[in-house]
Amino acid sequence: MTNLTWSAGEERFRAEARGWLEEHLATWRRRHGLGTGADAQVPSGDTREGFALHLEWERMLFEARWAALSWPEAYGGRAGSLWEWLIFEEEYYRAGAPPRVTQNGIFLLAPSVFEFGTPEQQQRILPRMAAAEDLWCQGWSEPNAGSDLAALTSRATKVDGGWLLNGQKTWTTRGAFCTHLFGLFRSDPGSERHKGLTYLLVPLDGDGVTVRGFGRLDGDEGFAEVFFTDAFVPDDAVLGKVDQGWSVAMATTGSERGLTLRSPGRFLATADRLVDLYRRCAHDGPASAAMRDRVIEGWMRAEAYQLFTLGTVTALTEGGAVGAESSINKIWWSELDVALHEAAVDLLGSAAVVDAAWTKAQQFALAGPIYAGTNEIQRNIAAERVLGLPRR
Amino acid sequence: MRFAFTEDQLGFRDAVRSMLDKECPAEVVRAAWPDDGTGAGARAEPAAVAAVWARLADIGVLGVAVPEAAGGLGLAELDWVLLAEEAGYAAVPHPFVETVAVAAPLLASAGAPTGGGRSLAGIVGGTVRIAAALTPGHDGRAVPYAARADGVLVHARSTGAVHLLGPDEAGVHSVRTVDGAIDAADLTDRRCHDGNVVTAAPALVDQAFDRGALGAAAQLLGLARHMLDLTVGYVVERRQFGVPVGSFQAVKHHLADALVHLELARPAVHRAAYSAAVGSPNRARDVSMAKAMASDAARLVGAKALQCHGAIGYTVEYDLHLYLKRAWALAATWGTAAWHRDRVGRAMGI
What we know:
The structure holds two protein chains of two kinds. By secondary structure, chain A is of the alpha+beta class.
């Protein structure tokens, strides 16, 4: 039967999450003089000063076992269900808690470590990741390998006891602040395209690794390029099998696009804030009627994403898997996010020239159709693998 | 929390799907069109068209929302929403939503006016078809299926009560429509009186409209899926520049957009069925969200389907137009997308 209500246990979980978030967000903000509620001025986690503040917040999350709540307790989680994860995310963004600077480790790398890692790797990597002691960035894109990831040329050369890395990664989110990178390197020098790649886990403080941060569209130093010059990593830095990195990486993109990168809670919260903004703005004339229609449309699209996700989680809970349909998901939430923020910017009118919360967030939303596989690539995947149109 | 249908619900859907696949292919939808373009009402209904309705009666679909005590299956919105989607997929040229989703359960709970032979038993048995003009503020113009229906549900202008009028009481006057299979008529009269009142209870009046809008939304999902299926089939076969046109990225991206909008409208419609079935206080809001999203999705899918077919889609000889025009008709009736967004906004308090 369809049942769109939460169980008593899930409601208790929600109440616990809501109470904890309210109390600890207030504590954290007060400690750093960040203001309260809607007036809170929290520096971006993608700046040097902001990153340290956010790390402190991440460690508070970890202490209370919220940081990676779906993980087994042995690794710092609380063995929560996917439903509980969804509920926590709703409460997290409703409370106005900051974007997770540990995102790319916990939500992109960890699923692959659970699937492909050895017990030793899981023990070594996961608890420190949950505790925000090791901070992971994703090393996939290169100057000449973006959408065409299989064109990557950074290489790993086998030496005694490990690998020597050479090449360059770029557009690496929070690369300037992270401690480790997970990436793909060409390990078979004679290989082409998807073959002969190895998934490697690389500390960024080693010899032969140089990181240079640079400004994203919003000016924050949220991007980095990472240069490798005979950087050594040991054999146990390989995740999965040597030369089989593509399939490991694709497992990560599945979780990324499918579910865990962007929960509905984030967009529900943005839509609610957009509705609040609309209420506070002046309403007269035809422009207002058009804005009202856009606000309602945005709210409905966020709600639809929530419903779509409830269907996905039901299917996963009953033994299904997220496949190429995850491309549908990614196209929807990324374009939804742009629409919500564009509506907000239009409501702000001339105030939209000010570099403030909405305009900052709008610039971040514009990245959504680009990162995690551009929406053009997603449309190809949806057309070829869901609809069955011929590849060329 | 569980957002999925039961095996029984899916099984019933599959049975209706395979029946309609056989009994209501495009040729039958086409047969429901007037061949002289002067309006359908003047002509006898082709046997194959009438047979679709009879088959729906045979397998119990027409009484799906009628209590078992009254000869129906006693099922709720969550059970029939998938059937409405299939009726949409097949573009069944009959007042499916009006009769099955609106009139039958309304008459079952309010009691049918006697007279004119417009009985609940007749509906369940397939001998009575009902049209409806229940969108708030409906002016009585171009009511789908009213030209051939045995009765029309309308609001009395003064009281808002719902009445079931015979064709003579409604003053039906056949009109020519874009979708030639819907046998629409203007209501030039609305002789509402105590003898033909169904209900004046606002809760039942509102519920009847919401069921109609939900059924229309579900049909729109089915139509969108059909248009997407037709188009995928076509672009895989059609070759230009030596390759299937479906291998071109421009075509893929059109159809990926169509798929995305269809797949995200679907859970909105299913949630609305749930809200209606459990009597949620959010029923009106959720139905409006469903109808708005399904209307927009079906129109977008239709536009993409037409474009990706090229010139062959822009003909009346090819089947696409049968489904495209039905989608337009359903998007325009039971409240447009903009009307429903407004209703969602009012529910949100803006």
